[in-house]
Design a protein that fits this description.
mainly alpha
Amino acid sequence: MKRLLSAIETVAAFFLLAIALLAAGNVLLRDLFSLSIPDWYDGSRLLQGIALFWGVALATYYGSHICVDIVWEHLKPGGRRWLDLLATLIVLAFLAPLAWMVWVKVGSTGTQGTSDLRLPMVWFYGVAAVGMSVAVLLALARLVFLWRGDEASLAPARIEGATPTEAELAGGSHGS
C-alpha cells in the first residue's frame, strides 16, 4: 500500500511541477522575448484538474481534508471511530458519482482539442478520471481500515527527524 500511495503522491507532484514550469516558462518567454507558449492556459488548467483529482485521492485516504473538529474532539475513541466511519462514507457517497460523471465526460469529449495545438483533451480528462477513480478506491480502503480499527494503516509515513504533531502525540488519527 505504501508503494501505491507513494506513486499517487508522485503523480500529483509531477503535475503540480508541470503547472509551475509551464507558468514560469510562459512568464519568462513573455517578458524576455514577447513570446507565449502555445496552449499554456489550456495546458495549465487541464494539468491543474489532473493534479487536483490525484490530490483528492490522497487527502481522502489520509483523512486530511479541511475539517472542523468541534464534535470529534469531545468524543471518546469509539465515538471518534464511528464519526470517522460516517464521514468517510459520506465522502465516498460523493466521490463515486463524481468519478462516474468524469468518466462520462471522457466518453463525450470526442475530438475536442486545445485551442492552439489542438491536443486531444480526452487524454487529459482520462488521466484526471483515473485519479478520481483512485480516490474512490482509497476511500473504500479507508473505510475498511476504519471498520477493522486499523487506523495505523492510514497514517502518512513519518519522515525521519520530523517532529510529531499534537494528534500523533495524542495517538489520534482523524480527518474527514
